[in-house]
Design brief:
With about 575 residues, this protein is α+β, with helices and mostly antiparallel strands. The protein contains 14 helices and 30 strands. Helix 3 (about 235-250) runs parallel beside helix 4 and helix 9 runs antiparallel to helix 12 (about 440-450).
Length: about 575
């Protein structure tokens, strides 16, 4: 199974426990020591003690990906890692594993049999980013305002052993500003737990002069920020803290703390990445995002903490991303954060993004092949999954005369996961088939997976009406990577509006209209400032192509008020 889809499993199964609970497990002691030079974190020194790994010569001690879902990591050479054991210095060599969908992993091998405990040391430097950096998953290490944030997968070369350790994580903050704190997804300050190395990889770390923001009404969520923001961080903590409690109650979550890390980035756009018990979100401060504008993204990341499906990422992304989209607005509405008008806007925003998407006709398998190389393709499972799940909910409600809904299926699948049973596509089809009939369940799923257009069916029908609303397909006219790979136009599409307006391959892109705005507004023009042959010019055009089949929802004047209680 793809590690990125294992995260919800870890959330359920790898629960923190006192080190004394399982004394037979080997110890894994980790110390993180950030180094600040000139007011900025320049590196994080890592020291790790692995208790008695008992490896033969050539055995694999550590592993780390060279990139993770297109995001560069520290990608250490073996020479950058110092190792020693009871017999003295321990030389390491390296080898690459077979490529995986999320990246290529490098293993570090011992040159002789190990004796006793092994201690390794290495240093990670923050990634250098700029206004042309790709707005991808937030795994990379970033320096910010005297501190840093990172996912473990980008800088921790960790033991290959899959079984749990008695983990001790300690912070050495002596080379940071006074008052600095260190935080892991699993706790503030020094933490002891029982977990496999995989959990250290897929969790977040942050240290520095951070401020904490806890909901004024109490709760389990804490928001951490290294910088002042253009929005009210306390008000944001209040809002998402209440939403987290509501979502946790719906999905049956226990009493674990939940942590949110905010970070600024120099490029336009915003995004988030969820890992067990936490998520990190990034924003572009000069764009002055508001709490209302951030709410949908943050709700999506919180919702990611629970629904999960067994299987490869390409097969199941429609479920992981679709359920996060669906429940991010449904549960926000139930929590009182969205009224009917705003709920309708959220539905139509997602429908508009799906129906006009450049790659909506890609099959799940085709989208999986291009998922990590094209940010536009990464959006496919979001809208597709949302519309398919909404359609399935409508079908279940219709078949049961409103007595049952998608909730029953999603929670049943989660119960199977918690019970250690299978929870894959076959289980999904079985559960949905019990609600609407096996043939209908399989037909709808196969159609969605093949990239056929997802029609509304009876989605939201008790409250809103789905009406035909043909849309023009989004088409930039050149490759999306043009904004990141040196900010130069690449892959110009012959006959596109971009070409007709005068855009040419090789044009240097100096400025452009925000891509989120263009995706959300079918009438929004792309305004490119380019440089060609030493001269700057502005080119404007409508980044749209032919008309495609689409729908949107409108209020149903015949609906009773209680019908809108989804």
């Amino acid at each position: 199974m793809n590690p990125l889809r294992r995260l919800a499993i870890l959330f359920l199964l790898l629960v923190a426990a006192p080190a004394a609970a399982q004394p037979a497990l080997p110890a894994l002691d980790v110390e993180l020591a950030p180094v600040v030079t000139g007011g900025a974190v320049t590196r994080v020194d890592v020291q790790m003690r692995i208790e008695a790994p008992a490896l033969a010569a050539g055995g694999a001690l550590l592993r780390l990906p060279l990139t993770i879902v297109s995001i560069p990591t520290s990608a250490y050479e073996a020479s950058a890692i110092s190792a020693r054991d009871d017999a003295g210095p321990l030389a390491l060599t390296q080898e690459e594993e077979a490529p995986r969908p999320e990246g290529v992993y490098r293993r570090f091998l011992v040159s002789r049999a190990t004796r006793g405990d092994v201690v390794v040391e290495y240093s990670a430097a923050p990634r250098q980013v700029s206004e042309t950096t790709n707005n991808g998953p937030l795994f990379d290490m970033r320096a910010e305002n005297g501190g840093f944030t990172s996912a473990g997968i980008s800088f921790l070369a960790l033991p290959v052993r899959e079984a749990p350790f008695r983990v001790s994580l300690k912070w050495n903050l002596s080379r940071m500003a006074p008052g600095s704190i260190g935080v892991w997804s699993l706790g503030e300050g020094d933490v002891e737990t029982v977990a496999p190395a995989q959990q250290l990889a897929f969790t977040f770390y942050a240290a520095g002069p951070m401020r904490r923001y806890r909901p004024e009404g109490g709760g389990r969520l804490t928001l951490y920020a290294l910088s002042e923001a253009p929005f009210d961080l306390q008000a944001l903590a209040n809002r998402i803290g209440g939403l987290y409690e509501h979502m946790a109650g719906f999905f049956g979550e226990g009493a674990d703390a939940y942590r949110v890390f905010a970070r600024q980035h120099p490029y336009r756009g915003r995004g988030g990445t969820a890992l067990p018990r936490s998520f990190t979100f990034g924003y572009h401060a000069p764009s002055n995002p508001t709490i209302d504008e951030l709410q949908g993204m943050l709700s999506h990341e919180i919702a990611h903490g629970w629904p999960s499906m067994q299987g490869e990422h390409g097969e199941t992304a429609w479920y992981s991303e679709g359920t996060a989209e669906y429940y991010s607005i449904l549960l926000a509405r139930r929590a009182g954060l969205l009224d009917d008008g705003r709920f309708l806007e959220e539905i139509n925003e997602r429908a508009g993004g799906y129906y006009a998407h450049s790659f909506r006709s890609l099959s799940n398998a085709e989208a999986a092949q291009r998922f990590w190389s094209d940010p536009f393709v990464q959006q496919v499972p979001y809208g597709r999954g949302f519309l398919y799940l909404a359609r399935t909910d409508g079908a279940i409600r219709t078949a049961s005369d409103g007595r049952r809904s998608l909730d029953d299926v999603v929670l049943a699948l989660r119960e199977r996961q918690a019970a250690g049973q299978s929870y894959g596509i076959a289980d999904w089809l079985d559960l949905v088939g019990r609600e609407i009939g096996r043939d209908r369940a399989e037909q709808d799923y196969r159609s969605m997976a093949a990239g056929e257009v997802v029609r509304p069916g009876s989605a939201f029908a008790d409250c809103f009406l789905a009406v035909p609303a043909p849309a023009r397909r989004l088409e930039l006219g050149f490759a999306r990577r043009s904004f990141n790979d040196g900010a130069v136009v690449q892959g110009l599409i012959e006959g596109s509006y971009a070409e007709r307006a005068g855009v040419r391959d090789g044009d240097a892109i100096l400025d452009y209209t925000d891509l989120d705005e263009i995706s959300a507004d079918a009438a929004k023009e792309m305004r490119l400032t380019i440089r060609r042959d030493g001269r700057e010019q502005v080119i404007s055009y409508l980044p749209r192509a032919q008309e495609v089949e689409a729908w949107r929802w409108v209020p149903n004047p015949q609906a009773a008020e209680k019908a809108c209680n989804f």
